[in-house]
Write a structure and sequence with these properties.
The structure is a single chain. With 166 residues, the protein is an alpha+beta fold. It has one domain: Peptide deformylase (Peptide Deformylase). 19% of the residues lie in helices and 29% in strands. The protein has helices at residues 26-42, 124-137, and strands at 47-49, 59-62, 70-81, 84-88, 96-102, 105-111, 117-123, 152-154. The strands form 2 sheets. Strands 1-2-3-6-7 form a 5-stranded antiparallel beta sheet. It has a 3-stranded antiparallel beta sheet with strand order 4-5-8. A hairpin with a 7-residue loop joins β4 and β5 (96-102). The radius of gyration is 15 Å and the shape is globular. It starts with 25 loop residues before the first helix and ends in a 12-residue tail after the last strand. It binds zinc ion. The site of zinc ion has 6 residues, from α2.
Length: 166
């Protein structure tokens, strides 16, 4: 396992649609292991998408506090309901937060790291994390959702919280 360097917001990999995973082989398992280790190393991280470690593949890990790690391959939001205002940040843009809108709840389908088909319905922080990470594999970042640049602001490093780490 290895801790991978993070791609920052100016990296092209974050702004292009990632490739679908066709075959779940050893290299995908290693990617999952490395992404999970990287997420744990960062501490307080709620999720990570492969483009954030410079790999243009549709691979996502999510771990909310006190919950098991969710692994996702080729995830898609198939349904979303409602709208709510959230404060969001991204590991690829440290020190910033933005006020954006996210769905109240989502249904997501994909496969887990073992190839098992999964479909999950989520709301709250998990729905937000899923939308954030699935955006990443589609080349979208949260600042793309800002209605105005006034809704993006800098925070003090000690103001970092788990919500910011996705
Ligand atoms: Zn992010």
């Amino acid at each position: 396992m290895a801790i991978l360097p993070l791609a920052m917001m100016d990296n092209r990999v974050l702004h292009q649609k990632a490739k679908r995973v066709r075959k779940i082989d050893g290299s995908i398992q290693k990617l999952f292991d490395d992404m999970i280790e990287t997420m744990h190393h960062i501490g307080g991280a709620a999720g990570l998408a492969a483009p954030q470690v410079g790999v243009s593949l549709q691979v996502v890990v999510i771990e909310l506090p006190g919950e098991d790690v969710i692994t996702l391959i080729n995830p898609e939001v198939v349904k979303s309901w409602g709208e709510r205002d959230v404060t969001e940040g991204c590991l690829s843009l440290p020190g910033y937060r933005g006020e954006i809108k996210r769905s109240e709840s989502v249904t997501v389908k994909g496969r887990d790291r073992h190839g098992k088909q999964i479909r999950l319905k989520a709301d709250g922080l998990l729905a937000q994390a899923l939308e954030h990470e699935i955006d990443h594999v589609n080349g979208v970042v949260y600042i793309d959702h800002l209605e105005s640049v006034d809704n993006l602001y800098q925070i003090e490093p000690e103001g970092e919280d788990e919500l910011g780490h996705i």
